[in-house]
Design brief:
The complex is a heterodimer of chains A (306) and B (247). Chain A has 306 residues and is an alpha/beta fold. Chain A has a single domain, classed as Alpha-Beta Barrel (TIM Barrel). Chain A contains 10 helices and 17 strands. In chain A, helix 4 runs parallel beside helix 5, helix 6 runs parallel beside helix 7 and helix 7 crosses helix 9. In chain B, a hairpin with a 2-residue loop joins strand 13 and strand 14. The two termini of chain B are 34 Å apart. Chain B folds into 2 domains: 91 residues, Translation factors (Elongation Factor Tu (Ef-tu), domain 3, Beta Barrel), CATH 2.40.30.10; 147 residues, Nucleotide-binding domain of ferredoxin-NADP reductase (FNR) module (Rossmann fold, 3-Layer(aba) Sandwich), CATH 3.40.50. Classes of the chains: A alpha/beta (306), B alpha/beta (247). At the A-B interface, strand 6, strand 7 and helix 8 of A face strand 13 of B.
Amino acid sequence: MNLKKNLLSLKWDGLTIKNPIVIASGPAGNGEDLSQVIDLSKIGMFTSKTVTFRRTDGNPPPRIVDVYGGIINSIGLQNAGFKAFLKETIPFLEQLQVPVIVSIASNYAEEMEIMIKELDNKKIDFLEINFSCPNIDKGKEAIGTNPNKIYETVKTLRKLTKKTLLIKFAPTDTIMELVQASVSAGATGVVLSNCPKGMKIDINTMKPILKREFGGFAGPAIKPITLNQVYQVRKEFKDILIIGTGGVINHEDALEYLMAGANLVGIGFGVMIDPLIPMRIIKKMEEWLKYRNLNYSSIFCKAQRS
Amino acid sequence: MTKIFLKERKVSGDFMIASFLFEYPLSEKNDFIKPGEFLMIKNRTEPVLAKPFSILNINRKGFTMLIKIIGRFTNYLSHSIPGEPFFFRGPYGTAFEKKLDMSKTMITVGGGCGAAPILFFNNQYPDLIEKSIIGFKNEQIKGLIEINEAVYESESGMTVIDELDKYLSERNNSEYPNVLACGSFGMCQALHKHSTERKYQLFVSLDERMGCGMGMCKGCPIKTKSGIKMVCKDGPIFKSDDIIWEW
């Protein structure tokens, strides 16, 4: 028996997940390039890059600006659109030896319904509704920040699929209302958190470096914020699925998220630093647990006081 | 990521020459990286993105880079002490030879630290080089490296484009010239305009802020006639006619 493997494994709704490390949506694309570098079957779950109904060219450069503690990114959901995704990406995702989360976004309920209906027949495990990309114009005040709209949209989507349905939010003080709206409408859980908005100004031109002025702030600097979102949401919602993500670059970060109450831990920015980071985190987490004679269950939610 | 050690660094103004030693020497010379490809390098401890660098030359034991000190990492490197370990991954990118017609001679143009991959190319394929123009805004680089082909705007008042224009006017060759250039986006864009006026085939090697460096993150886009491409994976070399320069 391989004891090391068992230390990190978990189950969700009948699905056995090898370890809680999830490749988050975005920085790893749809996994084609990453699979050339690491064995994706060793990862807990893989999330595809958020797909939109129509092709999206994304934002003009620069798309990445370094700041202390991370980057401001302005990718703008560049993707080939849902039709191409079904034809070119789904076959790749379906053959991966790892549970897959497909991430979708749209500002129109009808587009989301079409995508969910199609994806319901595919060999994928979870669906992520990205209500929170900071880098698309129409998304700024769209569904993702309005609890009533969230409720209506999720309720409609829930009727179309029995798959695990996750809603992804950016950090906000009103997160409880948004999660409540999602869960009441039938969402299985939430992904906390997408990038908060951030800015960098070029002091020579005296203008924001990004053409859209702001972008998504990613990296270790946001971890205290996103970790708190996970902790607070878990305190109120004991049974929902939570993927904690934001600034995870080593095993200690991942352990903190599990202790705060995340079932799974997403890595995004870390994969951009070094695509081998997820493997290193899994190995170090195993060592950490083994050394202390602990396992996944014995640390999950342990930071919660009540 | 693979470990390398800083062997030596010399700084002159905004420029720096940095040499690194591999932790384990390469088994075969020149097989590891080709001109046009680049390495992603970062320091050991900071949780920051690795940065893309072209190399100037390489041997079994290590490699040398020509760097413009422009941001946090290059500034850090310019103060680092020989022996300090760094990490790299790669090489990434499309080698020049994969897109160029290697049966023809060409004119190579390098601007600023864009000189590095051009000098590497010149060195690897000396028989293909009809003429090379390596331009710098000032003479800082003279304190670091001797470049025979170098021209200095501060000395002559002429940019690399002026130099190229002069050469083409004096050129006694009826064959359609091919030009390979590497430099700032502005230089490449100006060269593209020049290429349409002077009618030559131009390939440019572009520099863009990168994320992963290997095509995953979509962080370094360039708009082309066949859609959005990534400078890190589809490039950095592009046929200038294929690029939609205004975005």
